């Protein structure tokens, strides 16, 4: 059943997490097993019985100073081996309800999950335009992630996807990722269409992943074949909606959040029908 996709995106058990506050505003979650690490940074974190707060000096500082303090914290975690998925990429951190507006600080992408901070990404559903424009979509391009990837190696994925770096707009990131990961020419990338925003919160390796995905649709001509370009992907497949549905129903075929984006595409274009319990499970994940 399609709900087999969703256990990998199960809601966190918040009993094991402490909320992280910035100036009385919740911005993250920290697993209780990681609180001991934060006690080594008393100038940055105030640890209380059931919650963690950024220190008042941090909150009163300007964005540049906060970012510098967070960078010191992040570099220390990297040096002692706690953070191993370092990406050399900055993410913006925002107050709830202020996505992509004024950040309170920026943080290394690989460190954001440690603090359960909200992150942002783009995913692209690339599909072949039917010869009859009124006909249903018959083919999508699906990527196979490199077996060298640290996260979800060798899983099926969207034609292109990536994190939203601080300072970039979603469409800018989508165009860049399409060109970098699938060698989509700039003229074809101009046809990217913003489709929807998908929000989900899941637990992964004693960390809460709170992500907002900007999903894009990319119509592609029949003669276009994506090319491996930056090593993120090891193969591309042209798959029918039925083949994709079968892969989604099989456990561990898709990278979970990419499977969620692909499933939303199939539903939105009326290429798959969900059973009532599957629809309820999907709503539970993205609610």
TrEMBL record:
CDD domains: NUDIX_Tnr3_like (cd03676)
InterPro entries (UniProt xref): DUF4743, NUDIX_hydrolase-like_dom_sf, NUDIX_hydrolase_dom
Annotated ranges, domain Nudix hydrolase: 121-267
Single GO MF annotation: catalytic activity
Pfam families to which the protein is assigned, alphabetical: DUF4743, NUDIX
Protein name: Nudix hydrolase domain-containing protein
Organism: Ignatzschineria ureiclastica
